[in-house]
Amino acid sequence: MKGAWTGILAGMVFAVGCGRQEPVAGKGNAGDVASSPLSAPVDYLAANAAGKKAAERTASLAPVQGALQMFHAAEDRYPSRLQELVEAGFLARVPEAPPGQVIQYNPANGSVGWVSSPAR
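Request: output the structure for the sequence above.
Response:
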């Protein structure tokens, strides 16, 4: 009896796993399909690498954000440009942008972030 239930369960898992792949919600193209169990390790590694890159971009701006807060506390305004943080001694240097990105700074509210560089 135990073997029969195991066979039924295995058959159900096989039937569900071999079904038609549905498009992934949130993807731009209708041709994108959900990942299969065979590609799951590769998909995981790709997602992990993308997350690492995003974390590195965010972490590289942490010193700039801290310097902006200190400058604002000392001067009661945000600098007109990021180089002013270096000139005032709040930051050693403005970080270099990752490939394909540029730093975007808004002196009105002190927000800073990476954006895709405009196409030439």
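Residues 40-120 form one domain.
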